[in-house]
Amino acid sequence: MTVPALLVLLACVATVPAAELVWPDAEARLRQARQLAREINDRALVERVASIAKQAKADFNAGRAADADKRIREIEAAVGIDPGGWTMNGLKIFHPTPEMLARRDELEAALAAAMAKDDPAAVRGVVAEMKKSLGDQAGLPDMRRRGDRDKTQPISAADAVTLFLNALKSDAAAMRDIAAGKPVANNMLRTYADVITGCCQVRPWVKELQPDRLPEMDRLVEGACLILTRLQQPAGFFPFPDLRGKNIRFGAITERLLASQPDAVKDGWVIVPDPDGGTQFDTGLCGVALLMAGVDYSRNTWTRAGLRAADWALAQRCVPNFNYNAFSVGLLAHAYSFTQDARYLGGAIEKFRVGVAPGQVENGRWIDAHNARTVYHFIILRALHDLWEVLPREHRDVRAEVSRAASAAVTAAFDEFEKAGITAIALGELLRHEDLNPRPDPRLGAMIELTTSVVQTKCALGGRTRLGVAVTDLAALARAWDQ
Fold this sequence. Notes:
mainly alpha, 20 helices, two-stranded antiparallel sheet, 2% strand
């Protein structure tokens, strides 16, 4: 941090008026700071939060509440929270009271039990109780990342294709390994799914506008598919890497699994499903990628692998994490699209009605602080679009439900974008939403244009091409500007 920036930060910390510190509130603020430090994967910052917590508690017990509050404000600033208040970038974030925390475990257990019954009415009943507990904090995220603000920069589809291919080439070493079928470092398998899906999405434009570069992209897809099919487990799901000592959050998840299942890790991969349902994340993305590539490249091996993933997802119970369920909704929707097998459509609809739709609240976001985050919000929106696109017209009620949920989700995202800036992950889903809704939010067109500029800037900053966004986000540029 530069000296002027540090002075500005200290001035902000010093000048924001402090309310009288109450220790339960201080504990909640420190808990939030620790969570964000862990997610940043900054061990030094996690340790600093722990140290500050001890010092602040000592100050508070000694009657120096103002000193305790000042310490907490400093650590809040370090993790991105606006010092002294429950906001990030000026927008409200979830602020749990002791009463909310006391009921949290009970309500999560009730939600899990209701979902295990595959009973939408029971799930909605529990969500109603959660709303009562959370009050006006239902649907507030526990973090908000600052977005970007760029002026619209129209480009041609040809330039978008060039940017896509050159951005991949900018990470030449990693792309060579992937093309050779070699996993790179400690990447989650979702990384290779993103490469496959993005390349499949942009392939028609590459074939038309730069056919001489098609072979290099096709080799990349083949290598990424090889990685996924080699690592797919016999049951159909996909593992995640053993990140102990490398990532605080995922390392802790692995430690918990090993405590109950000593054989959970093999050859550097966690080969048992996450009991909390997290395996649906990578399995959903990898399954969809393999299905897309299998069709586009006429490779039955890839298609069969994607369908094995869908069969695994079909058998999974919904869990009290709405975005996990959404990954399975998306995968089953794609499996139905490619096979017309009614089992997959029925499974997608059931998981939508049990494990996704009931969690959306009046502000358009999902009720719990985790799923209310923008990144998970768009994961759920993608599943809604996946389902809507494959629903036969005779399913009028379900189509109406999905359309209402997607429209409310887009409006909620726009409300945040107007205040905090635009997030690159939005582009693909905003383009799809334009096709879904005949009467979309009137801000949609302008938001699409601004989001394309954000994606473009992140990948061509200062005249230097780089892969600054997900491959699928960059692939959406060609579609956005294909006039």
